[in-house]
Prior knowledge:
mainly alpha
Amino acid sequence: MPRDRLEESLECFAGRGPEFRGGLSNHGPMAVEALARMGQEEAALPWAARYRERLDEAPSSRFPIEELEWQDALGDVRRVGDWTALFDRELTQAAFQDVASRWVPRLVPGLMAAATHGPIRTFHALRALQERVTDLRIHELAQGLGYWAARYQTLPGDPRPLGGQGTEAAAQDLARLAPRERGEGLIFAQVRGLESRPDFSTLVASVAPLTVVQDAFSDLSQIGARAYLANASHAPIALVHAVTAPAAVRGMLPLLSPSQQRVALAYTWQAVAGLIATNAPAGLSAHPSSGSAGTAESLINQAVASGDEHAIKLTEAAFRENAVRPDPAYLLAAADVAVRLAQG
């Protein structure tokens, strides 16, 4: 079977690890899959070749993870090579859908893994496999799941909605917890500070039960887009993930049972809440009734021209979420991020 442009782009990242420079996530495989999805296969390969130069080598497996001990290895980034090897083995023994259906529910409580890059990378890998099954794409899924497991990170409290407040109102209250001065450190380190804030878990649980799963995911991604618009000058990269994370989890819902979908929704709300509570002191922007974001073609061209991995991923996710339930906030956020994060 001949290779396509996405295959060639993914091959650029062969032998490269999930992180570089002390904890920054490797966005390469996610971004090239997003470019291909937007019809930009020709742009994906040169982008991948440039991005590859900043990456570290992939860590090797040292101590195999056995079925009975997997919980003990969760969240141990030193074992990311062991986790990837585990999923490589499992994916040779069962269909990728079966492996993902078994492991995504196990990993959902740790959705904040690597600032949500674990689940986002897993989603992009799964979507590539739904289009075409190849050894390279199977290994990319192993790397996505392995990264999610190795960087598994929970947030404090039980995220199940037990109150009566609307999600938007709760998000505005959560924004009041965010420091006016953004602290140093990576996103996954910043959210650890929520462990000393009991008001965070109280506010997360204060929302009314979320009954219609698809509608609730649209609520979350829309809240994320509006948080981005109000705080883009403060923490643009962190709040990109308040859109891309719920969009990614939504894309994995077909793998889950109805009860598992509701659990995934609760943990997605908790993750979005954590990003807002640490990075969105200005709260949410007003509901935009219209916007001048530009045409789809112009937004894609802007994302490609920016050269920025976050702009590429957010633009593609914005199109996806806007197609489910249109809202100007998605495309306005995409238009802003491509200019704001453009590489000189």
